[in-house]
Amino acid sequence: MYQLSEIWIYPIKSLGGISLPEARVELRGLQYDRRWMLTDRSGQFLSQRENGTLALLRTGFDAGNLLVWHVEYPDEVLRIPLGLPESMLNETIVKIWSDEVAVQQMPEEFGAWFSEVLKQPVQLTFMPETAQRHTDRKYAPDGQFVSFADGYPFLLIGQATLDDLNSRMEHPIPMNRFRPNFVVTGSTPFEEDSWSDFSIGGTRFRGVKPCARCAIPTIDQRTGFRGVEPTRTLATFRKSENKILFGQNVIYLDTPGKVVSIGDVVQVNLAD
Known about the structure:
This protein is mainly beta. Helices cover 9% and strands 39% of the residues.
């Protein structure tokens, strides 16, 4: 039996994730997942690829606020209110990969906090419901949108897939290197590559393509330091058309607002 074993969201793109017992599913991803993003002053998005310190910033929620703190300074917590009034937000254009998207710039006080921590000038932005950033139409149908995630609303990885990878390496790595939304048990290694339509607790999703990985899995999420693994090992058996593949990109096929929970049964109709 396939079963959902972990649920993760990453409220601010490239910062630490939050493990949840359940999550509300929306068209562009799980609720609050990658709805905030840091950019430089030109609007270009910022990630761990450029600044490894982002890996050391943790996130959480408390009494209507998104919380952010540095692992070395846990008492210095930034509180970002959820649902700030429109009057406090200015429209701005951000650049994320090949997309330019009209979003909202958060008040300068939040950007100043991040600028001090990251030692570079940045601004914090938020994606409202009015923003339209389409998934790649080559793999997903029209009408599919994505948040500030790299390309698709959800990422799913089988626990057996990570176990197989770790069996090939001298030093095993945790799942957080790959930043999934869903982790599933009961599958065989890399089986999720072949999943097309499937459901989690009766809520319908579709796998559209294996995920091509960037350098972020080589960054230790405890230290922010970059190494050569797991890319070096993955390149020996998971390389296709010069891309390293790990995990399955997923879109949503159901009514917005449904809830998925750890322990939900995953039912799969394998692609032909």
